[in-house]
Design goal:
The complex is a heterodimer. Chain A is α+β, with helices and mostly antiparallel strands. Chain A folds into four domains: 164 residues, no CATH class; 220 residues, Four Helix Bundle (Hemerythrin (Met), subunit A) (Up-down Bundle), CATH 1.20.120; 101 residues, no CATH class; 100 residues. Chain A contains 21 helices and ten strands. In chain A, helix 10 runs antiparallel to helix 19 and helix 17 packs antiparallel against helix 18. Chain A starts with a helix and ends in a 12-residue tail after the last helix. By secondary structure, chain B is of the alpha/beta class. Classes of the chains: A alpha+beta, B alpha/beta.
Amino acid sequence: MIPELGQFALVLALCLCVSQAVLPLVGAHTGRRDFMALARPVAAGQFVFVALAYVVLTQAFLADDFSVRYVAQNSNTELPVAYKVAAVWGGHEGSLLLWIMILAVWTLAVAAASRGQPAEFTSRVIGVLGVVSTGVLAFMIFTSNPFDRLIPAAFEGNDLNPLLQDPAMVAHPPMLYVGYVGLAVPFAFAVAALLTGRLDKNWARWTRPWTVIAWLFLTLGIALGSWWAYYELGWGGWWFWDPVENASFMPWLMATALLHSLAVTERRGIFKSWTVLLAIAAFSLSLLGTFLVRSGVLISVHAFASDPTRGLFILMLLGLISGGALLLYAARAKLMVAEGGFRLLSRESFLMANNILLVAATGAVLFGTLYPLFLDALGLGKISVGPPYFNLVFLLPMLPLVLLLGAGMHAWWMKMNVSALVRKLAWPAGIAIALGIALPLVVFGQSSFMTAIGVIAGLWVCGAALLDPLRRLLRPQQGMRLTRAHWGMCLAHLGVGIFILGATVTSAYNVETDRGVSPGDRWETGGYEFVFRGVRDVPGPNFDAVEGEVELRRGGELIALLTPQKRVYRVQQSPMTEAAIDGRIHRDVFVALGDSLGGGAWSLRIQVKPLIRFIWYGCAIMAFGGLLAATDRRYRHVPERAASSPAVGHRAAGEA
Amino acid sequence: MWRYAIPVGLLAVLGVFLARGLTLNPGYVPSPLIGKPAPEFNLPALKDPDARVGSEVFEGQLSLLNVWATWCVGCRQEHGFLVELAGSSGIPIYGLNWKDDRGTALQWLERLGDPYVASAVDADGDVAIDWGVYGAPETFLIDRDGTVLYKHIAPLTAEIWQERFVPIVTEKCGSFPCLQDGIQ
């Protein structure tokens, strides 16, 4: 009975969604206040019913209700409670419910935070979000209903995919979805601006914090996914250019471009139609990502259940939502008039270069991801595009991007004095070049051209990012006061620099060996001594494991006892590798247990990875910088002027 | 202005490809070798390093070539089925032991059973390159005249065997299990 309530709640939510999509948009178009006034209550009602459906599904998991097909497929009585809660989004149907749930929360947040904005504009934003929710809710109800019954009920569930039974994997999908779905908000703002035909600096100021928050969650989500792949898949890599990874990375690149373009639009009232296009593209890429993941058109290491009918539905959704927005763009973009110009050497130019390079990188990744599909569709054969392609085409735009980044942060708006810029940056540049060449040689005893370039780039970005904060801290009287947004920008770029250092050093100096070992064996890898003690059986709540014991020693002293596991989950009988990692800030020692070679001997994969943690620290710092920027004073306290005047543009002369 | 219509045009092109993609099966990777003579090789045998196994073994009967290695988890997975197949199908299975350690490989066959008439040792992986091997395990079906008939990537299972191999074998042999001269 209870699951039917969930189903009923979903249908009611769909009805409310349709009204949310239609009434406010019609109201804004015809100027009917009563229709516009419905936007917020209807959005709140939609949230209530989606949340109810979500709670009902969670309850079905907690109660082991195996008469619900989705629960029977993704849970088991032996599954620990925390994973039962997480199993709600462990499969296709539930993850769609999570998607809708998060969109409802975003809609509610937008409705609550936009009280100071003109009703006509807010109605359009909420209406567009309603169109998106209607599409996805209909997709869920008609093709992927999580409340479908299984008659007769199963006695026991099929268990959650063992790969997903991991703390990082519990947090990864919600984070990623908050980011993915959050891009619907700038999308809705962009479409609303196109519908009104007016777009000004206020528009950019309203859009920016939402974009930053979506971006920071996307950053964390991708980082968590990469961290999970690193220790759970047992290969020790951290990025594979797999289609599903690319599906999350492309919206991130586009959102990053959007953030920077919004900065120009907010500050200077230019790049308007470009900003709108980026906002549409970012959300379209997150829809495209959903399509690629769920339709099975590409092969991926992520074994999601895929289904061509679902693919067709998402494709139609993509066509309707993105196609509609882009048609509107084709018709209305010419109305977005620039409010000023800029000189060649100015922050605007640097940000334009940033945008061009990021969009080029997105295009390259998109092309590589879809290339096998293009060839296949044209009947030209089957191929797979591997990391060598991606590493090359991604680095080509990224290298100039990070070099320009350091200078762009310090360039002035409108126009910049060259000698002032050179004077300010000569020291950080000199130090980065000197240390970038010397440090790898001193620490690791060898270096290469590409390694030096990578380390120089990383140090250069870190140095440029720290310049203003250091001045402020060292000479509080002299230095200018930094706004919270400025701190955020510096920190986010520092994160980029740290990430580059981590990625460069770990790929250049990674030591990796596979070897067969017997109990008592001693050997040396990457400057550490290892002793294999043997394996023993360890029972888990819903799995049986073989656990290896490996001593990690340096100079005869025991540093850590590593216990890599090989688990077999009882229900699905799938073997899983749990690597053991001794993680320090400057390096990870990674040991994964391979296969039994008979006679007590096992194969082991041992890796020593210097600075690998910098990759994830860098991402976390980027996200924290985003948090600071999004909570800047100017977004929290809406100036009276903006609150009272509607979103009229064309009067920017006196501003900024 | 037409330039503002470029994005929607790009989306339309993308949409056409994606729609076409829905009707294709990306998991099906044909080999350029199909319909062509099997690449020649002459390698040491696994069981007896002094003996040789060459591509002439395929002549005269339908046979299978299975690329395997002890470091390959998928090979472990399909091994049981291969042993079963060797006893029931009437088709000899040859192994290509790829980039492996001889001692470990012999131990593996002793412990898990040996489905192979003979295994050729491809220690450097040169022959695997000639055969266009993507990764172990892969299984080739080879005709009496040494022509490659079919190639399967990934572990072989009863369903895949039934679905993909049996129709070809039945057509070539006229019956299944295949009754071939000189083979029990």
